[in-house]
Amino acid sequence: MQICRFNDNRLGLVDGDKVKDVTSALDVLPAQHYPLPTHDLMIANLPHVREAITTVAKGAKSYALSDVRLLSPIANPGKIIAAPVNYKKHLDEARADPQIHHQNQIAEIQRVGLFLKATSSLVGPSESVTIRHPDRRTDHEIELAAIIGTRADRVTREQALAHVAGYCIGFDITVRGPEERSLRKSIDSYTVLGPWLTTADSVADPSSLDLRLTVGGEVRQQANTRDLIIGIADLIVFATSFYTLMPGDVLLTGTPEGVGPIKPGEVMDATISGLGSMRVEVRQLSPARH
């Protein structure tokens, strides 16, 4: 099943080049009171929501996918966790390019561990990436994103993938510089998820998915998740050895070689096999609002 959020926070079921408005399926979600939960309510109740989607989809209104505005399929992740330099060839290029490493030591993921991105950086493909520091190099990074479906704490490798609700395409946009990763990668709009959530039961083998990103039609990144240094299950084991993962938490699994600069006016097109494709525009930052 492929589930999207679109337009004014509507819930959609993707069916080929159409999307069915199944927003009423969210009526199965439990009522909440302050303090609100620190996880994504829809993902926490995904089995019930999926049952409701199947029922309401029969008479649902359909729209052309090309006519809707796609939001992030996850509305309220408690955490966005990212894996740095998790493809060998990207590790090599990061060490070789001064514009990437900025005299920082680029160590193996096993040594540097994971890092967190601000949830305020999250947007959907139709919301665009906005360059905040045009005087500095800002790079694209395509990644497979795994969405956690159930609470996971100190899990084993054998248990790990059972905690995944689904997968989507992720962008981990970064401004280059000497600062810590989490600062440079937490800028507003610098995490993009889309085009929709493909549920885990629809992905036969997440460790064998082709990734491809083009900018202005030029192929920049192309790889397969089999090339990950630390695979998805082991990343979940790694993460849960430090903190508990909750429904809706996002795990960005790392980007392959070929990262490069993007500028306002350019368009990024990304595809991951079985998960769909998304087009994301790059824009210039508007004047500050006080």
Describe, in plain words, how this protein is organized in 3D.
This protein folds into two domains: 2-70, Roll (SH3 type barrels); 80-284, Fumarylacetoacetate hydrolase, domain 2 (Alpha-Beta Complex). Helices cover 17% and strands 32% of the residues. It contains eight helices and 20 strands. It has helices at 41-44, 46-56, 88-96, 98-101, 109-112, 157-160, 181-184, 232-240, and strands at 2-6, 10-15, 18-21, 62-64, 70-71, 80-82, 115-117, 122-123, 129-131, 138-140, 142-148, 164-172, 174-175, 191-199, 210-215, 218-224, 250-252, 260-261, 267-272, 276-284. The strands form three sheets. Strands 1, 2, 3, 4, 5, 6, 7, 8, 11, 12, 14 and 17 form a twelve-stranded mixed β-sheet that branches. Strands 9-20-19-15-16 form a five-stranded mixed β-sheet, with no helix packed on it. Strands 13-10-18 form a three-stranded antiparallel β-sheet, with no helix packed on it. The termini are far apart. The model has no long low-confidence stretch (mean pLDDT 94).
